[in-house]
């Protein structure tokens, strides 16, 4: 997976200064592969990666994230952005009925979607009318009637002898019928072909001209991968559309089609279909699709966690101890180890309001010094760590010998610890942290 590959590329990198060109290149190489594996079209991948590199170059290295994580974060943000950021809502006509026309290849899921959309619209308080304009295949009308029944939504279809035999006049009549029967939304199901062809496009364009839809939704099977781009371009040029619906997301497609279609046509993705049941349908969520394309929901979660610097539960426990002046050297060591994994120690105190001064001091401690502090605490017995008051002169000598430092350094650490603990407890009291004696303000 992408996460594994990134981990091996970035094992030895640390967050210092700016992201180096080499870091960015290495990370982008992996992301490029991930995008191609997700079936994003090559020209789209190229443009996208070029843009990411530009953006990554100007970025300061964060304290919480390593360079790879940071590039991934940028990529994720850009993906979510391209995929639409906030989901766009359906355009409703000022004067009902709102006309929604579905277009797409045969088998893309238009008829199924018509049912899903009708059910969803009904749930939103609308009174939709389904319209059968696929008169090409023998069973197409019946199929729409079946989904209409399931959704509890009426279907307008040509009847033998009622004079509306062609798709264009069915569409036109359906809008009149909708006005007459107080349907505020009309959903028009159209015919598709297995491939793009002139006749199909002309028919869709004729229906479009007859009813002037408020939304023309291009329905595309997420599993068709690279072909999504050519198909989308053909429909954009032949019919034009205002939004995209992705279907069959329950399959194993990584969803690159979404990015390609969106990138190439500039039209938003409004809905996602993920199954054969009427309820397998949702408005489109760009963030979910972004992590699906990257195939790294886990990495994104890790990034979020790293940014929070350390976990909330531990923070709470520590806060209680700080507030009651019970912080031990054991806690101190634990925190130090946890925070060292994440970045500078200063982040730990970043959690405490008003700890600015101490934060600066801690930021000045260099890594070597931290190693020695760690060695000293490791050289203490558990009892000493829990109750540092018991660390008398002879214990200090023993600890110094055991950890290879001068006694003065042990003295220093113990004294600084007591000072810090006192200061933190006072501060916690002032800011009303849990466990703080006089903090109930
Ligand atoms: P149309 O030719 O564009 O009208 O496509 P249909 O609505 O008839 O769908 C073609 C096939 O795909 C049918 O067998 C549907 O049950 C199936 N289908 C449609 N949408 C989905 C979906 O989101 N997930 C899955 N698994 N199957 C779907
Ligand atoms: Mg159909």
UniProtKB/TrEMBL annotation:
GO annotation (BP), single: SRP-dependent cotranslational protein targeting to membrane
Gene3D superfamilies with a match to the protein in the record: P-loop containing nucleotide triphosphate hydrolases (3.40.50.300), Signal recognition particle SRP54, nucleotide-binding domain (1.20.120.140), Signal recognition particle, SRP54 subunit, M-domain (1.10.260.30)
Record-listed E.C. numbers: 3.6.5.4
Keyword presence, RNA-binding: yes
Molecular function in Gene Ontology: 7S RNA binding; GTP binding; GTPase activity
Keywords: Cytoplasm, GTP-binding, Hydrolase, Nucleotide-binding, Ribonucleoprotein, RNA-binding, Signal recognition particle
GO CC terms of this entry: signal recognition particle
Keyword GTP-binding: yes
Binding site for GTP: 104-111, 189-193, 247-250
InterPro entries: AAA+_ATPase, P-loop_NTPase, Signal_recog_part_SRP54_M_sf, Signal_recog_particl_SRP54_hlx, Signal_recog_particle_SRP54_M, SRP, SRP54, SRP54_GTPase_dom
Residue ranges of every copy of the SRP54-type proteins GTP-binding domain listed in the record: 268-281
PROSITE patterns in the record: SRP54
Localisation: Cytoplasm
Reaction(s) the record says it catalyses: GTP + H2O = GDP + phosphate + H(+)
Role this protein plays: Involved in targeting and insertion of nascent membrane proteins into the cytoplasmic membrane. Binds to the hydrophobic signal sequence of the ribosome-nascent chain (RNC) as it emerges from the ribosomes. The SRP-RNC complex is then targeted to the cytoplasmic membrane where it interacts with the SRP receptor FtsY.
Domain description: Composed of three domains: the N-terminal N domain, which is responsible for interactions with the ribosome, the central G domain, which binds GTP, and the C-terminal M domain, which binds the RNA and the signal sequence of the RNC.
NCBIfam families membership: ffh
Family the entry assigns: Belongs to the GTP-binding SRP family. SRP54 subfamily.
Subunit description: Part of the signal recognition particle protein translocation system, which is composed of SRP and FtsY.
The name this protein goes by in its record: Signal recognition particle protein
Natural source organism: Longimycelium tulufanense
């Amino acid at each position: 997976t992408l996460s594994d590959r990134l981990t091996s590329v970035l094992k030895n990198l640390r967050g210092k200064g700016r992201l180096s060109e080499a870091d960015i290149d290495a990370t982008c190489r992996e992301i490029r592969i991930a995008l191609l594996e997700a079936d994003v079209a090559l020209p789209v991948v190229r443009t996208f990666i070029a843009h990411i590199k530009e953006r990554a170059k100007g970025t300061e290295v964060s304290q919480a994230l390593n360079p790879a994580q940071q590039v991934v974060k940028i990529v994720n943000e850009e993906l979510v952005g391209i995929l639409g950021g906030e989901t766009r809502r359906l355009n409703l006509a000022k004067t009902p009925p709102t006309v929604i026309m579905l277009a797409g290849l045969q088998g893309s899921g238009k008829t199924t979607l018509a049912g899903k959309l009708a059910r969803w619209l009904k749930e939103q308080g609308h009174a939709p009318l389904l319209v059968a304009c696929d008169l090409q295949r023998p069973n197409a009308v019946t199929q729409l009637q079946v989904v209409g029944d399931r959704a509890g939504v009426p279907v307008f279809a040509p009847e033998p002898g009622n004079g509306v035999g062609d798709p264009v006049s069915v569409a036109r009549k359906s809008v009149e019928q909708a006005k007459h029967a107080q349907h505020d939304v009309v959903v028009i199901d159209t015919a598709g072909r297995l491939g793009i062809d002139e006749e199909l496009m002309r028919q869709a364009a004729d229906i479009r001209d007859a009813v002037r839809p408020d939304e023309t939704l291009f329905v595309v099977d997420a599993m068709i991968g690279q072909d999504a781009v050519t198909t989308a371009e053909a429909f954009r040029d032949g019919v034009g559309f205002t939004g995209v619906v992705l279907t069959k997301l329950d399959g194993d497609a990584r969803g690159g089609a979404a990015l390609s279609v969106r990138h190439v046509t500039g039209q938003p993705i409004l809905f996602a279909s993920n199954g054969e049941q009427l309820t397998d349908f949702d408005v489109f969520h760009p963030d979910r699709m972004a992590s699906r394309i990257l195939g790294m929901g886990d990495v994104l979660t890790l990034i979020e966690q790293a940014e929070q610097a350390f976990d909330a539960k531990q923070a709470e426990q520590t806060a209680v101890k700080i507030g009651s002046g019970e912080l031990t050297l054991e806690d101190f060591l634990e925190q130090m180890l946890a925070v060292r994994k994440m970045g500078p120690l200063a982040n730990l105190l970043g959690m405490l309001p008003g700890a600015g001064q101490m934060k600066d001091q801690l930021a000045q401690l260099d890594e070597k010094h931290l190693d020695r502090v760690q060695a000293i605490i490791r050289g203490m017995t558990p009892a000493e760590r829990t109750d540092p008051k018991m660390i008398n002169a002879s214990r200090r000598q023993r600890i110094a010998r055991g950890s290879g430092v001068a006694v003065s350094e042990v003295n220093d650490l113990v004294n600084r610890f007591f000072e810090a603990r006192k200061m933190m407890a006072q501060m916690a009291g002032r800011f009303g942290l849990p466990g703080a004696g006089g903090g109930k303000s």
